[in-house]
């Protein structure tokens, strides 16, 4: 089987959750013997491919062009929407006034893709429920969850501690691009008030926001870590916190839990479908919720969540679910 993945042109240059989902799903499908190609060309000749898999309808303009091209060439189209309505986030203090209007203006484009593709692969049933609330007509679907690297199972703190011996023994970790949507400023401020060291991993999306976050003396930003070193960082941390405005469900929360770390997650989006009652939840508009979760994290056990995530969400399993969906739609 030959599959073409299509995604925003800058998905490698400006990495985000969709980048990890695309690369990890593609690699795990290749391990199953599927030929996976990647292209951001909206006019590519699709004749060599059995199907086109388009990722992310948040950035809809590029996805819409890929969709029109695939439709014109009568190709089977699968869409991973990675969708969550950003209304609360776009209405927050300091948000750009026209951002919500632009989002709403693009909804008819999203509606066309969601209604006319051959199959939707939402990351959770919760995401599908929200799509059903926001759009009238939807294609059939199968939930294909997000995952974590199989190699993260059994991660230990040693590698990270050897490479960064000067870091405090106990720290809270947050691995995500540094931007207002990920809400690190709230996390930095609350950790500072509680006297907790905070280590941030990930690329900087917003330079002004980054300056405000790193102005706190308890914050260390270490750039982006990958592979075994990232797994070791998760394993070394006391807790991993992702208090974002929404997540579907937050790849770093999945990865951290697989490495045996207590997870503090936003309650907005689909985290509860993945983590159930085994994570600590915060609400972005409830200041006290983060303080409470950070205090509770020091006595919480990561083991129930670790076992649950390791059983259900390795990328190898996600690829099997995805391939099953491909076969179903092609047959």
UniProtKB/TrEMBL annotation:
Domain of life: Bacteria
Listed SUPFAM superfamilies: UDP-Glycosyltransferase/glycogen phosphorylase (SSF53756)
GO molecular function: glycosyltransferase activity
Occurrences of domain Glycosyl transferase family (ranges): 158-296
CDD domains, per the entry: GT4_PimA-like
InterPro entries: Glyco_trans_1
GO biological process: lipopolysaccharide biosynthetic process
Entry keywords, A to Z: Transferase
Annotated protein name in UniProt: Glycosyltransferase involved in cell wall bisynthesis
Organism: Desulfosporosinus lacus DSM 15449
């Amino acid at each position: 089987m030959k599959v073409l993945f299509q995604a925003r042109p800058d998905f490698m240059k400006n990495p985000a959750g969709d980048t990890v989902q695309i690369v990890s799903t593609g690699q795990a499908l290749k391990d199953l013997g599927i030929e996976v190609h990647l292209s951001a060309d909206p006019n590519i000749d699709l004749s060599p491919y059995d199907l086109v898999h388009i990722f992310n309808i948040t950035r809809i303009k590029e996805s819409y062009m890929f969709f029109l091209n695939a439709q014109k060439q009568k190709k089977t189209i699968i869409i991973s929407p990675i969708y969550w309505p950003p209304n609360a986030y776009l209405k927050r203090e300091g948000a750009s006034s026209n951002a919500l209007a632009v989002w709403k203006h693009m909804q008819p484009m999203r509606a066309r893709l969601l209604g006319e593709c051959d199959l939707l692969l939402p990351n959770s049933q919760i995401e599908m429920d929200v799509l059903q609330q926001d759009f009238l007509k939807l294609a059939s679907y199968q939930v294909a969850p997000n995952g974590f690297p199989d190699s993260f199972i059994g991660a230990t703190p040693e590698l990270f501690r050897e490479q960064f011996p000067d870091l405090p023994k106990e720290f809270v970790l947050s691995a995500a691009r540094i931007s207002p949507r990920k809400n690190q400023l709230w996390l930095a401020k609350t950790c500072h008030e509680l006297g907790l060291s905070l280590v941030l991993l990930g690329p900087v999306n917003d330079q002004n926001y980054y300056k405000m976050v790193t102005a706190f003396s308890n914050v260390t930003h270490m750039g982006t870590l990958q592979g075994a070193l990232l797994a070791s960082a998760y394993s070394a941390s006391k807790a991993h916190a992702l208090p974002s405005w929404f997540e579907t469900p937050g790849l770093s929360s999945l990865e951290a839990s697989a490495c045996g770390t207590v997870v503090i997650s936003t309650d907005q989006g689909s985290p509860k479908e993945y983590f159930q009652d085994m994570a600590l939840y915060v609400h972005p508009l409830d200041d006290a919720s983060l303080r409470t979760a950070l205090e509770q994290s020091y006595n919480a056990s990561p083991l129930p969540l670790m076992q649950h995530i390791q059983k259900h969400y390795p990328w190898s399993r996600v690829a099997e679910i995805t391939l099953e969906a491909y076969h179903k739609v092609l047959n």
